[in-house]
Write a structure and sequence with these properties.
- Two copies of one chain form a homodimer.
- Chain A is of the alpha+beta class.
- In chain A, 35% of the residues lie in helices and 27% in strands.
- Chain A contains 15 helices and 25 strands.
- In chain A, strand 10 and strand 11 form a beta hairpin.
- The longest helix of chain A has 29 residues.
- The mean pLDDT of chain A is 95.
- The interface between A and B is large, with 59 and 60 residues.
């Protein structure tokens, strides 16, 4: 019987049955987003967009607290700008939207055709280092003009061949910070400061534990000196790169000619950084917490904390139950910090409750005549599935703690999953075995994070990518940093790094 | 002597000398925006962007209060979508950015060339009725799915030939609301509701009085049944269309096939609306209030309400003055509603004060040793230029009222200017004379709003546009609606309409 029950899930297939399809179904069931008729571009629906809005609000506050201001730069980048930085063009020319005309005219067959060709083609920004660098070169003359600490909220386009809602789309929304400094040290400090902002945000708001680290040469941003990242583990044990912060050295300031007269009267190139997170975070949020019944949301980012469901068995009860629910809603929301809503739609109770389960609302409260007469509420937690009757007074006074408990529980659960699937591996054989699916019934869920010594040879990375689709996710900034021996080359290794499969 | 003094202005030229150039110089002096190397695209600098952010915050709140939610739709629109609505394509095909390729490759001369042509070209959205309509046709099946009340914050591109910072740029930022309803009546109510939201926002936050009205057939949005607008008068007496709200009837639902099963079981087309305001509002804000010393900001949208300027005459005073200023800043900001900052940069006092004058900060407070000893402050109002010594306690306790007074004064001043330059005109001769420059020394500033009867003939509009560059700005929704005779045709007129030159 228990077994029978366990099989009934709101999402089909389950994570174990088909993880990628489960993800698509969770997104669909929660009405978060859908594919559009424009190749690779998604439509972010209201429930999904409100998650991004909540993330934006918190991040924007953190950027401002750390001294940054927002600005806005052009969507288009002249092709000649892209050419200025050799690695950068290599990285982005392969997949970009190219604007070549500025008008449409009716062709011989009555169809609209591109007309008025541009003198120089433009690309839709895949990232804005080059166009922002050009502006900074105009703004910066003296060390007094530095630092520049600017962030931009924008859309960007990368013409990805294989797309997946939130995780990889041709167009996505993001923020990109671009800063310029007088010294290398200051720019390096900024790079790490913003990495920490991302790490704290992921942990404290998304309840998504991340490992902060540095990318290897082969995995870094095209044009960067050093790329730092936060890496999270999803429930298929793959890594999701959730945010990056780049120390760009003087590469882009040389490409864009961002020069300044130093305090000692010498012309110098500025030191720049860039850092970004995107709507991919929404994908990470979904995959970190959701279960086979759909989306599970951490309270700090949930559009709605509590949904009140009136249970009406007869028309004569309706007025009384709705009135009670409405008063409860008012009481709960009066503090201003809890987002609550009564769902009084005239649909079946089961359908209604399951709708909110699939949408991930942290707490559901059912109110029927019996509850009213005992002044109690039937309270259901989305994260644990726990359901119990609680006195109204107790619920209201304990609600803030309950939300905090849910937030904490989600983080603890995600940490446990990550830690349970992170192992130290010291031989090539164990490494290959770890990353090879064993159970043909759930081929998608296997492996995890391998903490393995690595001598840094790019050939090893190429081989592992080819053999196992495994890459170095990052060289962690913290944790055990004792040296050892690389199992792939036998050469000395400075410390263990994180290997994993990734999105 | 007074005359001498009046000639010294921070902005050259003055409004009277050369209004368009004055505008550019105000934008530059306040560091609001600048042109970019990408044709027609501007860079919105931090001070300018924070004005847009403050506008967004208020408007977004008002949209949510009126039941709307945010979502996000693709940047690109397939050309075939644009073709679905005949007037719409006519309106937007003439100037749009066309994406034709998805890759760049190195050509024979070593330069990057477009590669991988798309099967169907895409245009960068100039507005999103067609792509959003396509999605709504998927989402709407039954009357239960209606209304859809969605807004999008986004960038759009219209390949304008002559651009002007904020007022007319190839790329601009805006919001576009798109709603679908089961009945004509509901859609019409929505159209007017959002027009009123814009009207209230312009008046209550921007301190910019506007006239709400309906566009004539010739001036309406391509594809709309009715276009409503808010029109404001700038200080060169030209009209700025500051926001529009369109009743689209069933035009776009027929083009996109947004059909639903009605409550009575009949397949019907939905009734849709769209409405938008853009970064053009920032241009309107600048031109409504600024003077020959630069930007003047209404407190409700100012990034900073009060700037505290320490006056330091000797190094021995420095510590004491800065400490006093810092305590004052803390006291002022403690309530949470006043945005205040101490400017302790080590530059000349005059340069510093003028910098903030040009940036439009409502209140400057100068603090020197003499002020400290008398516990008083030297307070300067940006809007009136009034400067006086006030006791610290009086200033702090009266600050909120002072900001309210400034906000009110700006609105009153703008209303007076608009009313002074709005005249009833009843003959063709007077009309032509009104819109013809008389003073060759200030050719840009003449005319105003002419309240004139109009029979509605499109030929008259064509002639006036050709002869005088004058158009019907709107048929006002309020004010004197008594009928009369059209001075251009002698035919009967339902009511006076607003004629004007425009941006």
């Amino acid at each position: 019987m228990a077994n029978e029950k366990a099989k009934r899930t709101a999402i089909t297939p389950t994570r174990e049955q088909d993880y990628p399809e489960w993800y698509q179904q969770v997104v669909k069931a929660a009405d978060l987003a859908e594919t559009s008729p424009v190749r690779g571009c998604m439509v972010i629906k209201p429930w999904g967009y409100s998650l991004w809005e909540n993330m934006q609000k918190v991040l924007d506050g953190k950027f401002k607290e750390t001294g940054h201001v927002n600005a806005y730069f052009p969507l288009f980048i002249p092709v000649s700008y892209l050419e200025k930085e050799a690695e950068h063009v290599e990285g982005f020319a392969k997949e970009c939207a190219v604007v070549t005309h500025s008008r449409l005219e009716v062709g011989p067959d009555g169809k609209l055709l591109p007309a008025s060709p541009l003198e120089e083609p433009l690309i839709v920004r895949p990232t804005s280092e080059t166009i922002i660098g050009e502006m900074y070169s105009r703004w910066v003359q003296s060390y007094r003009d530095l630092p520049i600490l600017v962030n931009q909220w924008a859309n960007v386009v990368r013409w990805e061949m294989r797309t997946r809602l939130f995780l990889r789309t041709a167009e996505f929304l993001w923020q990109e910070g671009h800063t310029a400094h007088a010294t290398e040290n200051e720019a390096r400090e900024e790079t790490i400061r913003m990495l920490k902002v991302y790490e704290d945000f992921a942990r404290d708001y998304m309840a998504m534990p991340v490992i902060s680290g540095k990318k290897t040469e082969g995995e870094k941003f095209p044009g960067a000196v050093d790329t730092y990242c936060i890496e999270a583990m999803m429930q298929d044990r793959k890594a999701l790169q959730a945010g990056t912060s780049h120390f760009l050295g003087q590469n882009f300031s040389k490409a864009s000619n961002i020069k300044f007269l130093s305090e000692s009267g010498v012309q110098e190139y500025a030191w720049t950084t860039s850092w970004g997170v995107s709507t991919r975070l929404v994908g990470g949020l979904i995959m970190t917490h959701s279960d086979d019944d759909g989306l599970v949301l951490p309270p700090k980012l949930a559009p709605l904390h509590v949904v009140i469901l009136p249970i009406i068995h007869s028309d004569s009860d309706r007025g009384k139950v709705l009135e009670y629910c409405s008063a409860l809603e008012k009481e709960i929301s009066s503090g201003g910090s809890v987002r609550v809503q009564v769902d009084s739609r005239d649909i079946r109770g089961g359908e209604k409750a399951w709708g909110w389960i699939k949408k991930g609302v942290p707490i559901r409260v059912e109110v029927g005549m019996r509850d009213i007469s005992s002044d109690s509420l039937f309270v259901c937690r989305r994260d644990t599935g726990e359901k119990k009757s609680v006195s109204r007074a107790e619920f209201v006074s304990g609600l803030s703690d309950l939300l905090g408990d849910i937030q904490g529980n989600l983080l603890k659960r995600a940490e446990k999953y990550r830690n349970d699937n992170t192992v130290e591996i010291d031989t090539k054989e164990d490494f290959y075995s770890f990353f090879t699916p064993k159970n043909s019934k759930k081929p998608e869920i296997h492996g995890g994070f391998a903490l393995t010594h690595f001598s840094g040879d790019p050939e090893v990375e190429d081989t592992l990518r080819k053999d196992l689709k495994v890459t170095v996710r990052c060289i962690p900034l913290e944790g055990d940093d004792s040296p050892g021996v690389c199992p792939f080359t036998g050469k000395p290794s400075r410390r263990r790094v994180i290997f994993g499969k990734s999105y």
